[in-house]
Amino acid sequence: MKKRSFLVFSVILLLITLTGCESSATTSGTQSSNTPTVSKKTYGLNEDIYITNDSGEYRLKITNIKETSDRNEYSDVDADRVVIISYEYENISLNDDLYITEYDFKVYDADSNSLEDYPIYDIKYSDTVGVGRKSSGEMAFALNNSSNYLELEYYDNFWNSSSDCIIKLEW
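Given the sequence above, the corresponding structure tokens read:
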């Protein structure tokens, strides 16, 4: 009886040890890097972006980008130029209401500099929508170079460290 218990214990210990010893080498024998390369889907202006998560599905689209001469005299944000990005979204089947704002995006210029959102009085704010409903909104950003190119990283979940897609805009 003691031999059988010892044998079972040894087999369990061996399995636990072997399970923790997976190799991270690729088929060519070289070791992979610690930073995985993830290819994100890239979209452009007026392209439908379908996002599916555990709660259901929704559609997002960037519909316009334009510059404005409007400035907020009370803002501390430096802005050589201000761009307004228009977007729309539709709650196709999410169990929860959908609300998309500028805080769901990170915006970068052609030099990969992060842009600050810019407070403008005359922009349209989006609404919370239930299943089968749509909304649209606008967001403004300070741009401090002459390039007419932006990349938007969209985050379905604000707390995720990785974006769900990239939207490239040229005007």
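Strands lie at 42-43, 49-53, 56-68, 81-91, 105-109, 134-143, 149-154, 165-170. Try to locate this feature in the token string yourself.
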